[in-house]
Amino acid sequence: MRTRSGWLAFLLAAGMALAPRIGWAQVGGDMPPADPPMPLPLSNHLDRGGLFGAIEFILLRQTRPIGHQLVAARGAIDSDGQVTGRPGLFLGSGRPALWTDDLGPLTYAPGISAVIGYRFRNGFEMEVDWWHTFTARYAGGATLVPYNFLSGGDLADTFLTASVYNFTPEFGGPMFKTPSLPAVNAPAGLAVPGQFYGVWNAADVMSIQFSQRFDQYDLMARIPIFQTESDRCYGLFGGRFAWIWERFWWRTVDSGFKVDTPAFPTVRVDPFTGQILRTGTTVSTSRLIGDNGGDNVAIYTNIVSNRMYGPFIGIGNEYYLGHGFSISLDLKAAILLDIVKERAKYERADFASEAKRSRTEYTVVPQLQAQLNIWWYPIEGVQVRAGYNVMGFFNTIESEKPIAFNFGGLDPPWEHRFLRFFDGINAGIGFIF
Predict the structure, then answer these.
(1) Residues 6 or more apart in contact with residue 13 via CB below 8 angstroms
(2) For the chain, first and last CA: distance in Å?
(3) Domain residues for 84?
(4) The dihedral of CA 427, 429, 432, 433: what is its sign?
(5) Measured distance CA(107)–CA(424) in Å, rounded
């Protein structure tokens, strides 16, 4: 597994020194003013009302809804019987070479959270929150080199074969794939075309990748319920947009052989003897390593995009610990309409041909969220926090077995998932103006 965020470590280190949202009103009245005073346009006198804003870095891990589906096995199919005399006979061990969940362990994806809002004199607050995680990418693959070079006496296990069927001739792959398996009734040394028909039959390299990212936007109001010298409670409500985007990607490379043009028979007369001479007919083959033109590369993608809209409510409590520190817990519940965009597609790498299917589905998604934070108020008008978040989305759509092997009738199972779980940490800084 990997994620294209080489500066993740930097974000984490910087994030622990910083933290966001500034509905972060200070609790208690024993916070002294900054000494010496800071030359910044900041204030902690929220009883007067004012603008606030914040930014923080987040690390968020989410469920990876990919199951255990066989992608390819080791071996090749004699598609027309030229090699074995039996069309459709499988050559090789048939050992699994690649599964859809060969993606490595889960990881935390880095991201960013930002907020801007306004507090009124009566304590009522309005704010806009945004969460975004950078795309996390998990990858795996198989090549023509099996484990421990166990390829069999005929090298059949150096090939990879997937059971894609009902495809068009544009995905037939190279006509000449190997001269190493002699054809039935073929002249010695002659490479016969079409022994292993199809890009996914007797392929050389298969790669898979799963990508996912998450965004959430809140328009939120915060209403004070009660407040003492060391404790305050507040209500939360507003509207939410949450977006979970996922893509499964599978690439197949099917290299071939170059067959030199045969020398056709010619006739000439020896000028000294008058004898008729004929040239012989020869055919030679040579492997084109890396002959991966777009016509010999097939790409399959399965994209699921859960876009959820709806209201949420919640409650929070902050307890002042003293010496500029406090602890808070926010609980939220939402009911969201999920508009799900689903798409599966086969295409050649040169985009000359494709087959695809798209559909839109609607479902209702309940969501629960909890956020525990430690707050620090180092100087007047500045608030720092670090915390832990958990979220659960119920009844979203997933594609646990993402590959549809029927090229002519693309229909991968897009199914309801009981729970998607998110958890992660946040750290950032906020300012009150």
Answers:
(1) none
(2) 43
(3) 2-432
(4) negative
(5) 10
What confidence tens digit (pLDDT) does each residue in 151-168 have? Answer: 777 788 999 999 999 999
Instruction: Give the pairing type, strands 205-227 and 136-142.
Output: antiparallel
pLDDT (tens digit per residue) in 65-94: 999 999 999 999 998 888 888 888 999 999
In sequence order, what are the residues at sequence separation of 6 or more whose Cβ sits closer than 8 angstroms to the Cβ of residue 243?
214, 215, 216, 305, 306, 307, 308
Strand pairing category for 205-227 and 257-259 = unpaired
Kindly report the number of other CB atoms within 10 A of residue 80's CB atom.
Answer: 15
**Rounded to whole angstroms, how far apart are CA atoms 373 and 367?**
20
In DSSP terms, which residues pair with 397 in a beta bridge?
A: 416
Annotate 326-357 with b (16+ C-beta within 10 A) or e (fewer): bebebebebebebebebbbbbbbbeeeeebee
Cis, bond preceding 36 (omega within 30 deg of 0): yes
Q: How many domains does the chain have?
A: 1
In SS3 terms, the chain reads as CEECCCCHHHHHHHHCCCCCCCCCCCCCCCCCCCCCCCCCCCCCCHHHCEEEEEEEEEEEEECCCCCCCEEEEECEEECCCCCCCCCCEEECCCCEEEECCCCCCCCCEEEEEEEEEEECCCCCEEEEEEEEECCEEEEEEECCCCHHHCCCCCCHHHCEECCCECCCHHHCCCCCCCCCCCCCCCCCCCCCCCCCCCCCCCECEEEEEEEEEEEEEEEEEEEEEEECCCEEEEEEEEEEEEEEEEEEEEEEECCCEEECCCCCCCEEECCCCCCEEECCCCCCEEECCCCCCHHHEEEEEEEEEEEEEEEEEEEEEEEEEECCEEEEEEEEEEEEEEEEEEEEEEEECCCCCEEEEEEEEEEEEEEEEEEEEEEECCCCCEEEEEEEEEEEEEEEEECCCCCCCEHHHCCCCCEEEEEEEEEEEEEEEEEEC
CB atoms within 10 A of CB 4: 11
Q: Are strands 96-99 and 89-91 parallel, antiparallel or unpaired?
A: unpaired
Per residue in 334-382, pLDDT (tens digit) is 999 999 999 999 999 999 899 999 999 999 999 999 999 999 988 878 8
Q: In the structure encoding, which two tokens stand for residue 283, read together? A: 């055919």
Structure tokens at 267: 């006739």
